[in-house]
Write a structure and sequence with these properties.
The protein is mainly alpha-helical and about 190 residues long. It has 5 helices and 2 strands. The protein has one domain. Strands 1-2 form a two-stranded parallel sheet. It starts with a helix and ends in a 14-residue tail after the last helix.
Length: about 190
């Protein structure tokens, strides 16, 4: 980075810090929301994550079954290597290679599908979460609400409004019990 660009960045950052300090020294409110905790804490998020987890488990079983089939072919080839004709051994090796390729592709496809489902859940919920945060900020006189990231090692508990956002989300977006939620109480 050139000296001019560094100077510009430093000046911009300094100006932002100065403006922020002035604004917050005059009684402005600030809050933080942990978006992952909101996703995991809402009823809709729990149901969605549960559905994704079920999909993952089903795919794991499917892939494990296929892996056992490929492993069985490998064992069979190893056990019968001495008695198989070269054509039969070549054919069996081709089946193993084809099985490994199919297994790898199915694994990649499953991972892509999990990503799509997670993105769909997040997309479905994010606009609702953003509206709730905006309304909450306006009603409670917040000047700014930041999304909390994992690289923020500490946020004062009185600045964290995550649980309040979860409560409001659940009130505004109830999930029917038939949708797959289960009670953990006996």
């Amino acid at each position: 980075m050139s000296k001019k660009a560094r100077f510009s960045c430093v000046m911009t950052l300094g100006l932002w810090v100065a403006c922020t300090a002035v604004g917050f020294s005059q009684g402005a409110k600030m809050g933080f929301v942990d978006s992952l905790a909101v996703l995991q804490g809402t009823q809709e998020g729990k149901v969605g994550i549960g559905e994704i987890d079920k999909f993952i488990e089903a795919k794991k079983k499917e892939l494990q079954t296929f892996q056992l089939k490929v492993d069985g072919l490998k064992s069979k080839l190893t056990e019968q290597a001495r008695v198989l004709s070269s054509d039969a051994a070549t054919q069996m090796q081709g089946e193993i290679t084809q099985g490994e390729t199919t297994l790898r592709r199915n694994t990649e496809d499953s991972q892509a599908e999990v990503g799509k489902r997670r993105d769909a859940l997040l997309g479905k919920m994010s606009s609702k979460i953003q509206l709730i945060i905006k309304d909450y900020a306006e009603k409670n006189n917040y000047s700014v609400i930041f999304l909390r990231e994992q690289n923020q090692p500490y946020v004062a508990p009185d600045l964290d409004i995550t649980q309040e956002i979860v409560r409001i989300y659940n009130e505004q977006n109830p999930v029917a019990a038939a949708a797959g939620t289960t009670s953990s109480t006996p």
